[in-house]
Amino acid sequence: MKLKKSFGFIVMAVAMLGLSSTLSSVSHAETKVGFVYVGPIGDHGWTYQHDRARLAVEKALGNKVKTTFVESVKEGPDSERVIRQLASSGHELIFTTSFGFMNPTLKAAKKFGNVKFEHATGYKQAKNVGTYSARFYEGRYIAGVIAGKVSKTNKIGYVASFPIPEVVRGINAFMLGARSVNPKMSISVVWVNSWYDPGKEGDAAKALIDQGADIITQHTDSPAPLQVAENRGVKGFGQASDMIKFAPKAQLSAIVNNWGAYYVERTKAMMNGSWKSQDVWYGLKEGMVEMAPYTNMPSNAAALAKKTEEAIRSGDLHPFTGPIKDQSGKLVVEAGKIADAGMLLGMNFYVEGVQGSLPK
Amino acid sequence: MDLVAIVLTIITASTPLLLAATGELITEKSGVLNLGVEGMMLIGAITAFATTTITNSAVLGVLAGAAAGTSMACVFGILVLIFLANQVATGLALTIFGIGLSALVGTGFVGIALEPLPKLDLGPISAVPVIGQILLGQDFLVYLSFFMVVLVAYFLSKTRLGLILRAVGESHDSAHALGYPVLLVRFLAILFGGFMCGLAGSYLSLAYTPLWAENMTAGRGWIAVALVVFGTWRAGRVALGAYLFGAITILQLHVQGWGLEIASQFMSMLPYLATIVVLVIISRDGAKIRLNAPQSIGKAFTPSR
Question: CATH 1.10.3470: does it fit domain B3-292?
Answer without folding.
Answer: yes
